[in-house]
Design brief:
20% strand, ten-stranded mixed β-sheet, alpha/beta
Length: 313
């Protein structure tokens, strides 16, 4: 009976949630130009030298959508707006921020970093669970993708997402013979496979791919072959660790959203090593190596496609 009561209360809460919101009025999207040296987050605090920010603009973007309030930081090179869109969704993946900022200074474009209060998830919600910023890309919630991907409509190309991950993978969920560290959590490893994720492992295992936790994702529609994924053949041919991601229905991630909206997208992952400066630099350097090599393999000016038109519904 207790279980049934809890079950019924869950249904009642789900039904009442829209009513609690009242007439849906998300309010304005506010954009505030900031001095990066005054932003009180750990990511910005690691960069107190004004010369690192020379030629860049920083905006804070605040908005509400459905049950969440979001804060994004948009760092841009206004003289090179058609460089990549660098995306750092998880606020606790510090090497991703470091690599994105270094790449922005080198290649131009726009960087979007989600403010999660130092954590992986957005806890600023009016009801329900906290939200993974990389599981919130839905056509039915257009504000969030429209703000993250605004630079794409202005010619930014390609999208490059940067992540860190915990060691190993969860062997019980893998369909491959167990190799490497199968005592971890999650699926981010070149040794993991299932119906969605198929690995193509580096044979030489040269740095940075001497670690099973350092991988690139190549995402493709289920109606196509892995070779259809942006940059997949070039990365496999260059002997990378490449996880081939097959998409049927979106899981809300930017990789899925991108492939279903015909956007060129890459995702680079490395092992999380913490914030001690030397360890952080090592993780950053693995990501920047992948960025530099991918830019030469797949994102040269002569490879740029026609500008993509995307409608945020």
């Amino acid at each position: 009976m207790l279980r049934q009561a809890r079950h019924e209360r869950g249904w009642v809460s789900a039904l009442l949630a829209p009513a609690l919101l009242g007439a849906y009025d998300p309010g304005p999207i506010t954009r505030t130009r900031l001095d990066p040296l005054t932003i009180a987050t750990d990511d910005f605090a690691r960069h107190p030298d004004p010369t690192e920010w020379r030629g860049l603009t920083v905006e804070q973007i605040d908005f509400a959508e459905e049950r969440a309030r979001w804060r994004l930081y948009r760092i841009a090179d206004p003289k090179r707006p058609t460089g990549p869109l660098w995306f750092v969704p998880h606020d606790d993946e510090n090497a991703g921020f470091e690599a994105a900022l270094a790449a922005l200074r080198k290649y131009g474009g726009t960087m979007i970093a989600v403010d999660g209060g130092g954590g992986r998830r957005n806890r600023n919600v009016t009801f329900g669970r906290s939200i993974d910023p990389n599981r919130n890309f839905h056509d039915g919630l257009p504000r969030y993708p429209s703000q993250v991907l605004a630079a794409i409509t202005e010619g930014a190309w390609p999208i490059i997402a940067l992540h860190t991950n915990s060691p190993g993978y969860e062997g019980a969920k893998s369909g491959c013979p167990l190799e490497g560290d199968s005592s971890g959590e999650g699926v981010i490893s070149i040794r993991f496979c299932n119906a969605v994720l198929t690995p193509s492992a580096s044979t030489a295992r040269r740095w940075p791919f001497d670690s099973d936790d350092v991988v690139a994702f190549a995402t493709y529609r289920a109606t196509e072959t892995p070779a259809a994924a942006f940059c997949r053949d070039a990365m496999v041919g260059d002997d990378w660790n490449v996880v081939q991601e097959r998409v049927v229905n979106s899981d809300g991630s930017l990789s899925n959203y991108s492939v279903l909206h015909d956007l060129d997208y890459l995702n680079f992952e490395t092992l999380e090593t913490g914030t001690e400066p030397a360890a952080l630099a090592r993780a950053r350097d693995r990501l920047t190596w992948m960025i530099d090599r991918a830019m030469s393999l797949c994102a040269r000016p002569d490879q740029r496609p026609r500008r993509v038109t995307i409608r945020f519904r």
